[in-house]
Write a structure and sequence with these properties.
Length: about 220
């Protein structure tokens, strides 16, 4: 008998979650133990129930999308495997999902038997991409767009932290950054500390140099 895979379902559409739950009732090796409607709730529920598999939409409302939620879940619940679902074959989303630690990326239009097999594979710690997603990744590799050490480091930062990093590179102080982003100086200081920690730096100038080099490479590639 197969080991039961405990699942957290994450999608802002109730009908999608209900459809997945209904489909999984016919498979004894899956047990849906929790649900969430957005990224922040997904992280809370993952920490609470510690699922083996998180099946999560890429695009959701609120301050935390599926990719950022994936990154947080993988950081805080290391044993949780994540399968990302999306309605769009977006190569950037595929790459971002992989960098965030997802074990798989599947289009929602996939037939249920294929989705269930993908869930089994990722739930067991394997990895999978549907054919179109795999093609997008291969295309990016051929173009030389993935994956540098800078990309890997930058993938640890959320959108706000990336924006603050760019402002650090422009030579702004914490106060000036706060005025630009409508944040308190104390909040900016906290973000800067997190940025340095995630990038493995101890000095602000190191982060500024990193951002300048990264942005220069992005400009040269465009």
């Amino acid at each position: 008998m197969s080991e039961t895979i405990h699942v957290l379902l994450v999608d802002d559409h109730d009908l999608v979650r209900e459809g997945l739950k209904a489909a999984l009732r016919g498979h004894a090796d899956f047990n849906v133990i929790a649900e969430a409607r957005d990224g922040q709730e997904a992280v809370r529920e993952a920490v609470r129930v510690k699922p083996q598999l998180v099946v999560m939409d890429v695009r959701m409302p609120g301050p935390m999308d599926g990719i950022e939620a994936c990154r947080e879940i993988r950081s805080r619940v290391g044993d949780a495997n994540v399968l990302m679902l999306t309605s769009y074959g977006d190569e950037r989303a595929v790459m971002a999902s992989i960098l965030a630690g997802a074990g798989g990326f599947v289009l929602k239009e996939v037939k249920m038997p294929q989705l269930v097999e993908a869930m089994r594979t990722v739930g067991a710690g394997g990895s999978i991409l549907d054919s179109r997603s795999a093609g997008a990744v291969i295309d990016q590799i051929r173009k030389g767009n993935i994956v540098t050490d800078e990309d890997r480091l930058a993938s640890e930062l959320n959108e706000r932290e990336l924006r603050i990093l760019d402002l650090i590179a422009e030579g702004m102080t914490n106060r000036e950054i706060g005025e630009q982003l409508y944040l308190s100086e104390k909040t900016v200081k906290h973000h800067v500390s997190d940025i340095l920690s995630k990038l493995g730096f101890t000095r602000r100038v190191e982060a500024a140099t990193f951002a300048i080099k990264r942005n220069a490479r992005k400009f040269s590639d465009s």
